[in-house]
Every structure is written in C-alpha cells, then in structure tokens.
Amino acid sequence: MTDVAGLVRDRADKYVGWLTEACSIPSMATDPAGLAEMAVWVEQKLTGLGATVERLTHEDAPDALLGHLGGGSKSLLFYDHYDVQPVDPLNEWLSQPFEPEIRGGLFFARGAADNKGDLVARLAALEVYKEVYGDVPFTIKFLVEGEEETGSKNFHEIVERNADELKADGCIWEGQGIDHSGRPALVFGAKGLAYVELNHKGLNEDQHSSFAVYAPSPAWHMVEALATLRAPDGTVLIEGFYDDVEKPTAEDLKILEGFPFDEETERRRLGTDSFIGNVTGLEFLKRYFFEPTCNIAGIVTGYTVPGASKTVLPKQAMAKLDMRLVPNQDPDDIVAKLRKHLDKRGFDDITIDSFSMEHPVRSEPGFALGRAAIEAAEETFELPPAVAPMMIATGPMHVIARGLGVPTVSPAGVYRPTSDIHAPNENCSVEDYLKIIEYTVAYLDTYSRTE
Length: 451
Hints:
Blueprint: H1 2-10, H2 12-23, H3 32-48, E1 52-58, E2 61-70, E3 75-81, E4 101-103, E5 106-108, H4 116-133, E6 139-145, H5 155-161, H6 163-166, E7 171-172, E8 177-178, E9 184-187, E10 189-201, E11 207-208, H7 218-227, H8 250-257, H9 263-270, H10 281-290, E12 295-301, E13 312-313, E14 316-325, H11 331-344, E15 351-358, E16 361-362, H12 368-380, E17 386-388, E18 391-394, H13 397-403, E19 408-409, E20 427-429, H14 430-448
Parallel strand pairs: 3-6, 3-7, 7-19, 9-17, 10-18
Antiparallel strand pairs: 1-2, 2-6, 4-5, 5-20, 8-9, 10-14, 10-15, 10-16, 11-13, 12-14
C-alpha cells in the first residue's frame, strides 16, 4: 500500500477537487436540474475511468447509472447514490451548503459525508488502482441511484427490470464510517423503515382558544394518540410490534461483547447524561443493533411563531413517525398494526399515509468480498475494525441482498458521528476522505486474491 498511499497524497488536491465539484451540485429531490447535472457528472467520471455507462431509466425517478469496467468471471457491485438531503434550516449553516469550504481539516458541504464523499472516493480509487496494479482483474458494476434520500421509492423496480445485469458475487454498499475512536466500522446489513404521516382535522376552522372549554382539540387528540405508542423506556406499545423480531444469536452476542463503543463520548455528543432506559454495556449494544424504534420525527399544529403569542385552538394536527425495523419485521405489517392500535383506542379519525417503506436485511460476513473488506481494513487503518451485524440506519439494501441474493457489506467510509449528516454543516475529514481512497484500493486488491 506504500505506492498507493503516496500516489493518493500526491494527488490530494486533484481528488479533493473532484469532491468539491460533486458537492457544488445541488442534487436535492426538490431540484430536478441539480439531479440531472449530478447524473451527468457521475456519468462523465465513470466514462473517463474507462467504464461503459448505461442509464437505467424509470418514468417516476431520476436516472440511475450503471457503469461496467474490468472483466472476468468474478464480479463486484458498488452501490451509491448521488442525491442529497435538503439544506434546511439554511440559517444554521456557517458556509453555503453547495459552496464547499475546508475549515480546520474538515470539508463542509451538503453531501460531503452522505454519500458523495464515499462515491467520489471510490471513483478516485479506481483511477489509483489502475495506475498501480493495471486493469481490474474482475468485473466491477457501479450502480448509482438518484432518489435514496426520498426513500428509493422506485429502486426496487429499477433493480427488478435490470436484475440479470446487476447480479454479482458481492456488493459494496455506501460507506458505514469511522467511529469515535478512529476505528473503521463495517456492517453486513441495515435496519428497515416504516415512515408514516398521521393527520387529524377535527374542526372546520381554527378557533379562539376560549372555546377550548367545550370544543375538542385536534392538537390534544394527536398528542394523546402519540402517547399510547411508546413507553418512557423506549418500549414500543403497539400490539404485536415485536412479534417477528429476530433475536441476536449466540454468535451475534459474542461479536457485541467485543464491540468497541465509546458510550461516554456519544453521551457528550448528544448532550445527555444517560441513554433511554439507562441502558449501558451489552444491553445498550443489543438495543443499538437489534431493537426496533418508534420515533416522532415532527409535529405541526396551531400557531408556532417563536417569541410571539396568539391564543388559538387549531383545527388540525399532523405528526410524522419513523419506525426503524429489524429482521424479520415487515413495514406493511407494522403500519397495519399501527392502524389497529389507534382504532382500538378511539383514534380511528386519525388518518395514516405511508411514505418510505424499507425491509431490514442481513448478510453473513463470510463471503469473499466481506472477508476482503475486513482484511483490508486491518491493513490500512491503525486501529482494528469494528465489525457489526448491521447499521442502525436504513437504505434499500434488501433490494440487492434479498431481492438479488447478493451478499452485501458496508465498509468503512468518510462518515463520523460528528459529520452532521442530514443536518446543517455536514462535513467529512479531508484526511478520512484520502484514507478511504487508500482503503478502497486495498479491498479491491485483496478481493482480486480472495477465493
């Protein structure tokens, strides 16, 4: 890896420039022109690396890109996405979200850590690999979609339509990250998601708040409904919610017993003295990886102007819930159970609209690409890797891992817990970005020699 590390450092300005170009493009779902521009940028970069690129079109989605390079019977599929989260609240950014800026060794821009940092690092790694080792001795398929941040609503159809082209011996998912202590983190699965919006309109119009003495309050009605969903210790109270939860195996528990997690640093980052239910140690890790959640993502009702008053009884209320799911929960089943739960308690007048729905999934880590990713992490980073069963976040991994039967690993990427993904001032470390380029070259080389 000496030649690789030296080459990456020699070309640091070039590859940071690539990331700057990518993160200057406003590829949000609300900006179709930005999405189209970003698709062209990725397409041109892949073509410049010698790939043949095909656009996988769908009538209701931005084009996904599929690049082919290398050759041979053994194959690898990269998965990334070129869309990014919205930038609100804009006034909390210290620099413009699409005008990348480096401060204190950190690269600030929307998409820096999720997912353009990993995407561009992989593109750079392909260039470095070819220069150091020559042509890739196996087939690489590079799949980049454009609607991950809005739930990958059409990704399953895109994959089904192109299943034969996308099959591979293993899949590299967008990067997992680097933990608080600098250990490279790798996971072999992802939690699922059921994201819903609850709505209740109980009055014809907003009312003077004095009428609250006799008029029913939609806001209180919604709050009372929400209060039935979860206990203070985090236990979800929806009947049957845990029926299909797959408990950790003895092997899983062994992994967790040796899993490095800095609880104190995480508490400080959150600004709290304790975690929900005061869990710690092994019980904390079991909850972290193997328990589902029911989270209130937002509530909107009535008059909400800060620093001002208006006495009003609002006519309606809305709440957004996201429920992170674990194997073998099914998002449609969970929404049906939520409906039944509300109806049983007299909240049948609250409507439910479903949005992002993703299945949880896991791969066993013993496949060739998974072993190569772990071995390369041990060689590239100073600290040993932190290998975990699955990420606590969500992506459409099940479409590849379950739908196509392609075992999947999410290796270390540019993300750290302090990267502020989905928030103002998203960032990644420039040093981490360069290291991930090295690491990507390392696992490609290791995979070429792994049976």
